């Protein structure tokens, strides 16, 4: 199976834009959909992006997803950062043996 | 409004069997796979496995042999069993379907 690598942490100021990357170690990033999950402290994960770039109902359009075949990576971009966006973010895709999660990125909004 | 409601025993002794259930309210999810994920304390998310609409199961290889999933589409209910638990199975367990997640169940295994 492949590995999905995320930065351990990122930080940015309110109202700014931040991008979290998720790099697939082998195989094409485009061969399987990527999902992104937000997990606030003490809470269950919620889906903010599915199928690379789709937003579930209720997720603000400040959240966007994309994939880049040249870097074999997926990205989650959050614009107009709010303090409530402070959370752990996980990317996830599908391997031969099932779901593959990235290690998670702690987003601090300071 | 779709809701996933989980329940099951939260405190187990080593060698016992973990048993969790998850009910889906507010929607019909035939045609989709139903999944279980867990999160050890202070760690990231780990996929346990899934059961699809044909009741075909796929499990994480590291848990194969100990895990069983089942589902009842008529009642929108699915379940997880994990046998011979150890302290390493201590985690918050989540059910998920499409992009909906359950609230999580804390499972602690004591020796």
Name its key features:
heterodimer; A: about 110 residues; mainly beta; six-stranded mixed sheet; four-stranded antiparallel sheet; about 0% helix; globular; B: about 110 residues; seven-stranded mixed sheet; 11 strands
Descriptive account of the structure:
With 110 residues, chain A is an all-beta fold. Chain A has no helices and ten strands. In chain A, a hairpin with a 2-residue loop joins strand 8 and strand 9 (98-101). Chain B is mostly beta strands and 111 residues long. Chain B has strands spanning 3-8, 11-13, 18-25, 34-39, 46-51, 57-59, 67-72, 77-82, 91-97, 100-101, 105-110. Chain B starts with a strand and ends with a strand. Chain B is globular and about 40 Å long. The model of chain B has no long low-confidence stretch (mean pLDDT 94). The interface between A and B is medium-sized, with 18 and 21 residues.
Q: What percent of the residues of chain B sit in helical stretches (DSSP H or I)? A: under 10%
Q: Give the strand content of chain A.
A: over 45%
Largest sheet of chain B: 7 strands, mixed
Q: Quote the average pLDDT of chain B.
A: 94
Radius of gyration of chain B: 13 Å
The helix count of chain A comes to 0
Mean pLDDT over the full residue set of chain A: 97
Unreliable stretches of chain B (pLDDT < 50, length at least 5) are none
Q: Which structural class best describes the helix and strand composition of chain B?
A: mainly beta
Main pleated sheet of chain A: 6 strands, mixed
What share of the residues of chain B does DSSP label as strand, in percent? over 45%
Could you say which overall geometry of chain B the principal axes of the C-alpha atoms support?
globular
How many beta-strand runs of chain B?
11
Order of helix and strand elements from N to C terminus of chain B: EEEEEEEEEEE
Uncertain parts of chain A: none
Structural class of chain A: mainly beta
Distance between the termini of chain A: 36 Å
Oligomer: heterodimer
* Biggest interface, chains and residue tallies: A-B, 18 and 21 residues
Helix segment tally of chain B: 0
Helicity level of chain A:
under 10%
